[in-house]
Amino acid sequence: MSLTIWLSARTLQHSKAGGHFWVYLNWALGLRTLGCDVVWLESIDPSTPVSEAQTMVDALKTRLEPYSLTNCLALCSSTSQPISSDVSEGCLNLEETGKADLFLNLAYGIPPTIAGLYRRSALVDIDPGLTQIWMSKAEIHVAQHDMYFTIGETVGQPGARFPDCGLNWHYTPPCVALDWWPSVPAGPGASFNTVSHWYMEEWMGDEVNGYRNDKRAGFLPFLDLPRHTNQRLELALCLSADEEDERAMLQKRGWSVQDSWKVTSTPQDYQRYIQNSLGEFSCVKPSCVRLQNAWISDRTLCYLASGKPAVVQHTGPSRFLPDDAGLFRFHNIREAARCLEKVTADYEQQCKLARALAEEHFDARKVIGHVLDRAFA
After folding, report:
1. 337-367 CB burial, b ≥16 within 10 A, e <16
2. Average pLDDT, the chain
């Protein structure tokens, strides 16, 4: 008999972020590949005007349709107030939660009244280090769960640079639905690229010892990389009309810059953008380096699964992540340039190693199967 899993996602506010959608979609597709019945749960603020909320829900249904998940959508209120029946029309009823075998929460802030409806629940932390800091400072409020999973290898371990909040964290790699991410040859004029928000209003620490925690801050030490390599480097970024000077600065330094809302706004566009690339080049948010959480991006997994080598910034010692085989991890600009040259010098082999790494460690069937085994142990 198949299991019924309710998967909590957070995509309603991100209708033009195809990559953000894949964070949750890889889990949903992996669950379905294992024979599970999946319900996709989103929370919505009941104070949102009805017409605006309906537009958001309709857009989500459109994104879910190619994956046969449109009829699997359920909505809940993000507060104690109910949402309008006009907004939830056509969605699954929350009364069905009693039939669920497990609630997998990847969205964190689900109200306790909702999380408590399920017979068994598990939180999946996809922001290791940050999640624990936010929880310890009461910046987010996480309902009690039966189990707590994290994609950070150092979470809850001795020597971790952040609190564990008194919880028992179980490590799980992030996952990619390999059946939906086949290995694909690079397209004409391909580059090493990545997709990212550039500016975010995220500050870590206090005014004296704090630091800005966005991708721009992470890329700053590497802005001159195009001068150190012959490889074409491209960034797909969300830059507003007020930030054209930033685009000009990057282009002057040798970066190609695309508008991510144009080239990766849908899940299909995002997939094509990755699969037409030579591979990924990306830096990380400063918190990943400072916290040494051994984090790897769900986006990087999509590159690896597509047979695209990834050159990404080092986020701390790992029990299994390689530094120079399919996945290359660098500390400084000289290492970054050397990694790019190593990839291109043996490109076909590195493409095979990238796919093999995804198959060995990040296959959604293996990853989620292990999570389910532990959740029901």
Report:
1. bbbbebbbeeeeebbebbbebbeebbbbbbb
2. 95
